[in-house]
Amino acid sequence: MLKGKRWARMLIGLMVLMIVSVACGGSEPGDGDGDQLSGELFASGSSTVEPVTALVAEFFAEDQPGVEIAVEGPGTSDGYELFCNGETDVQDASRAIDEEEIAACEEAGIEYVELFIAIDGMAVLTSPDNAAAPTCVNINDLYALIGPESEGFDSWSDADALAEEVGGIAVPYPDQSLDLIAPGEESGTYFSFIDLAIADLAEAREQEEITRPDYVASANDNVIIEGIAGSASSLGWVGYAFFQENQDVVKAIPVAPLDGAAGDCVSPSPDTISSGSYPLSRPLFIYVNKEKATQKPALVEFIDLYMSDDGLSTAVSEVGYVEIDSPQMEETRAAWEEFKASL
User: Fold this and answer.
1) Which residue ranges form the domains of the chain, and what is each CATH number?
2) What is the mean pLDDT of residues 209-233?
């Protein structure tokens, strides 16, 4: 059974309606201070960031029961579409907004504040029952097994020749079925994986910067965890928090950087993710619609709570991600305060 039951309901792809409240600068959620607000807020986007936003919303609810917040996690890309259509107040994102999405927001007149809130590492996973799985892979191995040239590989060993060609360190692979379960194109985790594990080799080999299309894809990280746990020859990846919460049903495969040797392998952990020594580390963001913030006092107060220690520290660490360091926190908070000064 999956762990993290206190917020599991927030991770199954269903909209969570929560009554939320104002944080009035106190260090503890639920201090009961401040004027009561009302209204509705809508946060959507990354299923990776969703549990952080949902937990901040729970803190908010303790002080302001008159504000409804809907928090959902259809995926970063789908969330950007809603955000740039003006349909959401907050965009949760496991990757930075890209050029096409920036253009879409500009065309629709959507201005926003980008806030860096945490660091995540994508854990490469298999089943604990997969005794034949490699004990260490590098980025080249991941390309050989999951990249654009691996389409049609039904077993791990089908990738042997490609891995030897590109410099994988885990060949020969086991002669067993390759059951891939991982995020799909609607997920920011998918594009982050491409950026960190696929893009460089794909460009060098004049291939499209995509994963192979023939695998079980889902925007729901719990579905991915269940699929990986359910196959003794599985392979996939999710955000670190989902691995941390489910270490009894999945196991992580250490990863070395591009062209790294077996001795260079690094396991995902708060320390290796924070330092950047884990090769699949990435930033997490929220984006706030500026116009909606000018119209909704509750949105400003909600982001104030998000920018406090209750959000950038307590919620991030409770969910299982890595806190940004003090200078990064100061920069994030300064970006929000600069916007508030313009109100």
Assistant:
1) 5-119+283-341 (3.40.190.10), 121-281 (3.40.190.10)
2) 96
